[in-house]
Write a structure and sequence with these properties.
Number of helices: 17
Strand content: 15-25%
Helix content: 40-55%
Largest sheet: 13 strands, parallel
Mean pLDDT: 83
Radius of gyration: 25 Å
Structural class: alpha/beta
Length: about 450
């Protein structure tokens, strides 16, 4: 009993280290038990590591090594030979540990591999390479469907400059239903055929997070997508990326069922006439709202009592102050670019802790810093300034001097994005870090 308890505790500890890759790597060499549990944690979402040096190729090699012999023989018969880490069978059944599948990342890794291996760019070889890429993707997806019993996250979105073969109907592979039935997070593109959404709507009823990416005017399956949305039991997060309101407003009727469960809504809509956003006023339990659009007048008198995070960009939001008078009192995090009303915004958000401001012109930098330093609520302790083209050390020093005199004083987490930091700026930052004014600094390029 004691031994089982200790094993359970060790597993739970490693679960908490999921994002601490260095510590996890060290656990690989303790013993076989620690190695197995660590591998399970790492492979739960292996796509987090794809951007690391050589990680993509290592992931591909491991996936090829895990393929069943029938798939390996098929690839070999087509002249497709991708080296594996060792000729011996894999130590673990890595794919069975996966809880996340990114078809876009699989496609990118395989396409990159074949492009690097291609010696000639003749049209004949290019055509043959496309067939090889499609076959490898197909066999890997078939393996995923066969080996995973409890997939939680599926990413099926087109990557930039990479064409995912949407005509690979992995949804029809044996055991695909069993693999996909417990999905809780789905990201998908509008170009996917309707059969995919139809099957998901019959087997997946517990999706909590849904991201829909509209690519151009490719809307092949709106009706089936509506059915999928409606069939969910507890949709909590909805994210929509598109360039045209008409792409997504047809989905609104299917959202009515989820008015009480949606807590997060994200919309990036390039062309917008205002009216479709009226349904947001019905989301009484909404806690996080992101809007990138042109007009927001339908939300002016919305009452969202549980709103905690607001990220809003686009053309000037003349009704923002009215909206914040009704909804700003409990707001903890705000992102915006409306400098002309920044003072009023801060006065309406007395519980604000985090502020992110996008500045587009040089002349606004000093004004913004002065307003933020003088009118930020007493709970404020995080500031992120984005898209500053020129940043002067005197302005920054003045900001920190005023911040130091705030009552009550709280050290600040300070982030700058979109600029190259000069030495004189870093000198100011280091100075106020030593003085305890800056708790943490981060540069995001």
């Amino acid at each position: 009993m004691s031994e089982c308890f200790n094993i359970t505790n060790k597993c739970e500890v490693l679960e908490f280290l999921e994002n601490d890759k260095d510590t996890l790597y060290s656990c690989l060499f303790v013993n076989y038990f620690f190695c197995e549990v660590t591998v399970k944690v790492l492979w739960r979402n292996i796509w987090k590591f794809k951007l690391q040096s050589d990680a993509s190729l290592q992931i591909l090699n491991t996936l090829i090594a895990c393929l069943p012999n029938t798939s390996k023989c098929l690839l070999y018969s087509k002249g497709i030979i991708i080296p594996t880490p060792t000729s011996k069978p894999p130590l673990f059944d890595y794919v069975s540990f996966c809880k996340s599948l990114s078809i876009g990342d699989i496609s990118v890794i395989i396409i990159s591999y074949f492009k690097n291996q291609q010696q000639s760019k003749t049209s004949e070889k290019s055509k043959g390479m496309k067939k090889s890429i499609k076959l490898v993707i197909k066999e890997i997806l078939k393996m995923y469907m066969n080996k995973i019993n409890n997939l939680k996250r599926l990413d099926y979105i087109l990557k930039v400059d990479t064409k995912i073969p949407y005509n690979i109907r992995f949804i029809n592979f044996p055991r695909a239903r069993d693999c996909l039935k417990n999905l809780t997070k789905l990201s998908c593109a509008s170009g996917i055929e309707s059969k995919f959404f139809h099957l998901l709507s019959t087997v997946c009823h517990n999706i909590q997070s849904l991201h829909i990416f509209y690519r151009g005017d490719h809307i092949r399956s709106e009706y089936e997508l509506m059915k999928l949305i409606y069939s969910q039991n507890c949709l909590k997060k909805l994210k929509i990326n598109c360039n045209d309101t008409y792409c997504w407003k047809g989905l609104i009727p299917s959202l009515k069922k989820h008015y009480n469960t949606l807590t997060k809504f994200y919309l990036s809509d390039g062309i917008y006439d205002g009216k479709p956003l009226l349904f947001i006023t019905e989301l009484i339990n909404l806690q996080e709202l992101f809007l990138l659009s042109r007009n927001y007048y339908e939300l002016e008198y919305a009452i969202l009592p549980k709103l905690r995070v607001l990220r809003i960009y686009g053309e000037s939001f003349n009704s923002l102050n009215i909206f914040l008078e009704n909804n700003g009192k409990n707001l903890e995090c705000l992102e915006c670019c409306f400098l002309e009303t920044l003072k009023e915004i801060l006065n309406n958000c007395k519980q604000l802790e985090k502020l992110k401001v996008k500045l587009y012109t040089r002349t606004k930098v000093s004004d913004a810093l002065e307003i933020i330093s003088k009118f930020s609520p007493k709970n404020s302790h995080e500031l992120h300034i984005e898209d500053v083209k020129m940043f002067k050390s005197k302005e920054l020093e003045s900001f920190f001097i005023i911040w130091k005199g705030r009552v009550p004083f709280r050290s600040i987490t300070f982030t700058i994005g979109g600029i190259m930091v000069k030495n004189e700026i870093m000198e100011v930052i280091e100075k106020y870090k030593k003085l305890g004014i800056i708790k943490k600094f981060e540069l995001i390029k």
